[in-house]
Amino acid sequence: MEVPVELEEKIARLQMLEQNIQAFSSQRQSFQLQMGEIDNALKELDGAKEKPFKVIGNLMIATETADLKKELSSQKEVMELRVKNLEKQESKLKEKAEELQKEVMSAIQQKGGK
Q1: Global pTM value
Q2: What is the pLDDT of residue 111?
Q3: Residue 59 bridge partners (DSSP)
Q4: CA distance 77 to 82
């Protein structure tokens, strides 16, 4: 059974969409892990009695608790924005993939019915 060129192109686009969805999902999970680490660091800072240290490259530098909390909170906000953005992009790609998958399945069924 010969597959029309148009159907092959749709299948290729569908595969690319699936790969992009997977990439966005991986990035989102990575940012969510980083947010979890930031949350843990902020909790540790709340219970810290001594001056905290901040790692910069190969150095550990003593820093003020308030400054470190502010920096970590800022990083968390950035991560949250990135996660939301990735979720939106991932959702749009999933919608496109579902539509394309329906088109492909319909074309396959029509081809098989003939």
Answers
A1: 0.79
A2: 74
A3: 56
A4: 9
